[in-house]
């Protein structure tokens, strides 16, 4: 509770808290419309205010926990269930933010997911609509096809007649001797075609970590990879436009599928509904049969010279500011610029700059130019910040590597 008491809220947030308190007091087992409303709203939020804990979450927990406890697995995560309510209840009763001493917690099996909304492949859907439109256009034109053929036949016949008349006139003129008197038309001089000017050479690539497309991501859900014990498979919204390659639409948001080697290092429940920082322009790669289209940034202790990286952790996810929005650009101070659309693996851009990704004594994520060989002569730390100015941090690992 000490954490909540130290929190400050804007007037707009206070108004929203009161609205949630009213909803919490109106929750009953038979008020299905309100339960559906709460579940749908929480689909894109970690807590009632989005990412900022408040007393509204505790009020919701007190009203909803008894219901969730009595629900069957189908009522919890089935096709017509309320999985987002279940997630909130589990988060509030276990998170240190709320400091609740719950003796009889609601048992939640995070792996018991009875229904997953079918994923719509945005690219395939676009192609399907395109084909339907083409069929409709063909059907509309079918009615006028016969008329078009007749018109073409008439035009061809008229052309034959005109050419026959022209040939007859030439013969008559030749017999009458008129053809010799008529001045011959001068042939137009052909203009010399100017050769195409060679395209200007592409501008030299800026050598900067800004070439890496870093954004705020919102994990809507995460599950264990069915074929790899060390991997999680997460559905993450990161600000892509509808129809972007390798995206799907989930709960009204454009998302990518991301595989991360965090299973066994970070509890699965801590991956649910949280904000992270993602690398968005790495070339997609299949990981044990599932295409991964981005990478989640995490910190781990820096490997000392002579040591071997055993990948045993500890590992901490990079935390963007609580009020950051999914898709918000993230960059290192002093290194702002436009990222590449897709990083060319042959240019080793990620491998060049990642060694400079680190954390400070204040647990802020930063870029240390001095350790990047390609930036010889440059030095200094640039904090990892969002476009709105917030600094990205980790929980406890200072002097760590971030990758």
Automatic annotation (TrEMBL):
Gene3D superfamilies for the chain: 1.20.1050.130, Nucleic acid-binding proteins
Keyword Ribonucleoprotein: no
GO cellular component, as recorded: methionyl glutamyl tRNA synthetase complex
The protein's name in its UniProt record: Methionyl-tRNA synthetase
One Pfam family recorded for the sequence: tRNA_bind
TRNA-binding domain mapped to chain residues: 208-331
Organism, as annotated: Triangularia verruculosa
Highest taxon listed in the record's lineage: Eukaryota
Gene Ontology MF annotations: tRNA binding
């Amino acid at each position: 509770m000490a954490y909540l008491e130290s929190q400050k809220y804007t007037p707009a947030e206070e108004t929203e808290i009161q609205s949630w308190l009213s909803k919490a007091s109106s929750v009953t087992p038979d008020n299905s419309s309100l339960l559906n409303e709460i579940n749908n709203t929480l689909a894109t939020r970690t807590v009632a205010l989005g990412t900022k804990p408040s007393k509204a979450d505790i009020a919701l927990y007190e009203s909803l926990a008894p219901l969730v406890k009595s629900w069957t697995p189908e009522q919890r995560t089935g096709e017509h269930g309320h999985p987002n309510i279940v997630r909130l209840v589990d988060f509030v009763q276990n998170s240190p933010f709320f400091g609740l001493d719950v003796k009889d917690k609601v048992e939640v099996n995070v792996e018991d997911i009875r229904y997953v909304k079918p994923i719509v492949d945005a690219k395939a859907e676009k192609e399907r609509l395109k084909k339907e439109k083409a069929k409709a256009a063909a059907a509309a034109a079918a009615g006028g096809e016969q008329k078009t053929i007749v018109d073409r036949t008439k035009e061809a016949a008229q052309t034959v007649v005109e050419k026959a008349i022209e040939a007859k006139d030439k013969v008559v003129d030749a017999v009458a001797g008129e053809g010799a008197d008529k001045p011959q038309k001068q042939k137009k001089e052909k203009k010399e075609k100017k050769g195409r000017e060679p395209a200007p050479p592409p501008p030299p690539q800026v050598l900067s970590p800004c070439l890496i497309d870093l954004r705020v991501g919102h994990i809507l859900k995460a599950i264990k990879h069915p074929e790899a014990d060390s991997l999680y498979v997460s559905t993450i919204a990161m600000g892509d436009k509808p129809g972007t390659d390798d995206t799907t639409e989930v709960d009204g948001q454009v998302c990518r599928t991301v595989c991360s080697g965090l299973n066994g290092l970070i509890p699965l429940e801590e991956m649910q509904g949280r904000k992270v920082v993602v690398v968005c322009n790495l070339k997609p790669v299949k990981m044990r049969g599932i295409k991964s289209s981005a990478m989640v940034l995490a910190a781990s202790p820096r490997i000392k010279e002579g040591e071997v990286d055993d990948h045993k952790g500890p590992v901490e996810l990079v935390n963007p500011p609580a009020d950051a929005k999914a898709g918000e650009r993230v960059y290192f101070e002093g290194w702002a610029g436009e990222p590449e659309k897709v990083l060319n693996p042959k240019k080793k851009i990620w491998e060049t700059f990642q060694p400079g990704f680190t954390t400070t004594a204040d647990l802020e994520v930063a870029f240390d130019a001095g350790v990047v060989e390609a930036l010889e002569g440059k030095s200094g730390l640039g904090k990892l910040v969002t476009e709105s100015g917030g600094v990205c941090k980790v929980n406890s690992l200072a002097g760590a590597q971030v990758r």
